[in-house]
Amino acid sequence: MVRYCPMEIRNFCIIAHIDHGKSTLSDRMIEITGTKEKREMKEQLLDTMELERERGITIKLQPVRMQWKGKELNLIDTPGHTDFRYEVSRSLAACEGAILLVDASQGIQAQTLAVLTMALEHDLTIIPVLNKIDLPAADPERVSEEVVRLIGCKKEEILLTSAKEGRGVAEILDAVLERIPAPKSVEKGNGPARALIFDAVMDPYRGAVAYVRLVDGAFKKGQKIYTLKTHKQFEIQDLGHFSPGYVSDPTLSVGQIGYVVTGAKDVSFVRTGDTIASTEDAQALPGYKLVQPMVFAGLYPSEADEYPRLREALEKLALNDAALQFGPEQNAALGNGFRCGFLGLLHMDIVQERLEREHNCDLVITAPSVLYEVKLRARNPAEIVRSSLLKVDEPDVAAISNPADFPDQTYIEEVREPWVLLEILCRNQDVGSVMTLIQDRRGSQKSMHYIDEDRVMMNFEIPLQGIVLDFFDQLKSASSGYASMSYEPLGFRSGDLIKLQILLLGEPAEALSTIVHRSEGHRVGSIICKKLKDVLPKQQFQIPIQAALGAKVVARETLSALRKDVTGYLYGGDVTRKNKLLDKQKKGKKRMKQMGKVTLTQEAFLSVLKRS
After folding, report:
1. Helix and strand counts by DSSP (H, E) for the chain
2. Stretch 433-445: mean pLDDT, rounded?
3. 34 and 175 in a common domain
4. Where does the pLDDT of residue 67 fall: very low under 50, low under 70, confident under 90, or very high at 90 and above?
5. What is the pLDDT of residues 541-567, one digit of tens each?
6. Confidence (pLDDT) at 337
7. What is the CATH number of the domain that holds 355?
């Protein structure tokens, strides 16, 4: 027998493209349901992080419980940027329905399609809503037709709202009650209580706090609980719901969304995607697909003795951000640090700022790169690369994100790089400039279709390395700010990739090495050599700065010697005195060049590699 919830509950989230009004609609719902009094309201109420309020974007999912017409509504506000799609997928797994919010002036955008696809994969009920109908540029008729073509709904099912003015919000809440089904218990009979952890935070006073969706049974204070993947036992110190702050309750029941204070002092004990159960032998819930980082960069403390603090800060962030992965790394110029994996550049920026603000870490961050798979030709691959880099399922393939770990070219049979399916929505007149931009980055067009007479949806396949640095900025410039993009991984493909080494005085500077396509080696090498010439301090001897692909030098700059005037104190006499001193200096410089070494300073390293 299926156990229904003790009172009627609706769990839903709001999904949309960036800046289509998710947080504003959440604010109006909280206001109209009386969850917060009007005097307590402020803009972006659910965006609790200072960083979110400054940038005007949602970074973390945020749940809130509301009451409407005697029913309990659990809303999860989600981010819109493609870098935080993992936050969206976790929100969808905790809900039965989703409000698809579309800007009535901009219409369907690239990220709208991406989040809709995720919602349909989770088999959620979709409620289409057009927002910003108060804008002069709003065209509800045109955008409604786009939505009908996209999801196949009837035109009368699309709701119109202005979240800013509060128009149509009550109708949306009514539609949530009518269209979204109430949650059901998965387990039949009287099985153990189970809950899925969809997020977790570290409270400095109460330990790890798990954000959960109850799937079976009920939890109460003082009850013993077990985490089924980490195999730990805790006693529930407190539990309750979000309003949007913590509100303590005596119990949490089937279908409800709330928090559980575990008191765990170790951040690794309570992980996102794990199952909390009342018995140790309960069956674990499916959880979440393990997210794969797309972009990698080195994070280093500016002072060596700050290393333990950085490690502790990363552990705490990883509890709250399941997409963040990190491991120890050593760099000749920067010392000890961590190699971190991110979902994209915005994700990397946000993690860096959170470490600096919330944990007072003074950081140095290296240039972002992607993960490469290198197939080795050797009987014992562990002799060529560290065994920790070798893949378990393919023992002769190494997964390498740091160019310094690349083996000698003679040992490499094949190098594979990650490719992505890139979706770009732009105006008709921007098609030519967008396609030129894609071709410059080794991309190829797969399809193109018109959403309406003025807007085009294009699909491309492109190497991930081509879009991780400045691609989004270039796309906005090429389209006068009108284009939007979304991407998803396609897997690894073989390519003519090679390690570009920078040589100082003929010695390789591993900290500056990078992986490039052979066709781009000369251009990238020239840029790095010119930058180094400007920032390296002069020595008493001439320094050749070279970029090499294997044994072939593809670019060179020469840093001239620092000239010391050894004849300055002479006041006349025979010219042979002057020549004798100059010859002596020349021999000394030659000897220094043979024995001398160039120390790559942190400032020089940053000027070449640090993202501006």
Report:
1. 13, 33
2. 88
3. yes
4. confident
5. 788 888 998 888 989 988 887 766 666
6. 86
7. 3.30.70.870
| Domain count within the chain | 5
Helix (H, G, I), strand (E, B) or coil at 227: strand
- Closest Cα partner for 88 from 172, 199, 162? 199
Helix (H) or strand (E) holding 16: strand 9-16
Same-domain status, 8 and 106: yes
Contact by Cβ (8 Å): 515, 369: yes
Q: Which domain holds residue 315?
A: 295-368
266/407 same-domain check: no
Neighbours of 288 (CB within 10 A): 17
Report pLDDT digits (tens) over 79-129: 766 666 666 777 777 788 888 888 888 888 777 777 787 788 878 888 888
Q: Is residue 193 part of a domain?
A: yes
d(CA 495, CA 461): 14
195 and 174 housed in the same domain = no
Which of 408, 333, 399 minimizes the C-alpha distance to 371?
A: 399
Q: Are residues 10 and 146 in the same domain?
A: yes
CA 345 to chain centroid: 6
Lookup: tokens for 433: 């400039």
pLDDT of amino acid 611: 34
pLDDT at site 461: 92
- Two tokens at 243? 């309003």
What pLDDT band is residue 320 in, cutting at 50, 70 and 90? low
| Cα distance between residue 146 and residue 58, in whole Å | 26
Burial class of residue 604 (count of CB atoms within 10 Å of its CB; 0-12, 13-18, 19+): buried
Examine the domain organization and report whether 549 and 567 are in the same domain.
yes
| Cα distance between residue 28 and residue 35, in whole Å | 10
Domain CATH number, residue 573:
3.30.70.2570
Residue scoring higher pLDDT (4 or 127): 127
Which of 413, 472, 74 has the alpha carbon at shortest distance from 253?
Answer: 74
In a domain, 288, yes or no: no
Residues, the chain: 612
CB neighbour class for 474 (10 Å; exposed up to 12, middle 13-18, buried from 19): middle
Residues paired with residue 59 on neighbouring β-strands, in sequence order:
none
pLDDT score of 4 = 41
Q: How many CB atoms are closer than 10 A to CB 356?
A: 13
- Residue spans of alpha helices (H) in 321-418: 345-358
- Are 135 and 67 members of one domain? yes
Mean pLDDT of the chain: 79
Terminal CA-CA length for the chain? 60
pLDDT tens-digit profile of 172-186? 888 888 888 888 765
Residues 178 and 189 in one domain: no
